[in-house]
Design goal:
With 156 residues, this protein is mainly β. The protein contains two helices and 13 strands. Strands 1, 2, 8, 9, 10, 11, 12 and 13 form an eight-stranded antiparallel β-sheet that branches. Strands 3, 4, 5, 6 and 7 form a five-stranded antiparallel β-sheet that branches. It starts with a strand and ends with a strand.
């Protein structure tokens, strides 16, 4: 059973995160259901895991992606770690502003994974409601020269 959907963008078939966002998974550590909120990755686009929270006011917790890659139905077996123990400054990406040459260009609304879900290959951005109505949302692939929080996106 797949927890992502395949999307055709720029002649490539990509897997999107938007189907996962808002989904409930079982946190074996606390014995409760949690809601997936975001994805974590490093500068090279390698996905480290997913962020989930139990309540709107609670802290997000980190679920390693290794628990999702082997068998999706066994998500409950993923070991839960505190957010600050994640290695090498991973970033959350949904809702972040994307800049080009220090000027805000758009906001990230979705991300696209490689086939095996371990690497981000593109992000989908919005410039606002009216721009979406006129031109649609834009997809930025790994070769684009954009920045998030002043750091190069996809390690460039």
């Amino acid at each position: 059973m797949s927890y992502t959907k395949n999307v055709r963008k720029g002649g490539m078939t990509l897997r999107t995160f938007s189907v996962l966002a808002g989904s409930r998974i079982f946190d074996r550590h606390s014995g409760t259901n949690v809601i997936i909120k975001d994805v974590f990755f490093d500068n090279s686009g390698i996905v480290h895991g997913l962020l989930a929270k139990r309540h709107p006011w609670s802290k997000c917790r980190f679920f390693p992606i290794s628990g999702f890659l082997s068998e999706a139905p066994k998500v409950a077996n993923a070991a839960v770690q505190e957010l600050w123990t994640v290695c090498h400054k991973p970033k959350h990406v949904l809702g972040q502003a994307v800049t080009k040459q220090a000027e805000m260009d758009a906001m990230i609304t979705d991300v696209y994974f490689s086939d095996n879900l371990d690497t981000l290959v593109a992000v989908e951005t919005t410039e606002g409601f009216f721009s979406d109505m006129r031109h649609g949302r834009q997809t930025l692939f790994h070769n684009a020269s954009y920045e998030i929080n002043g750091e190069s996106f996809f390690g460039q």
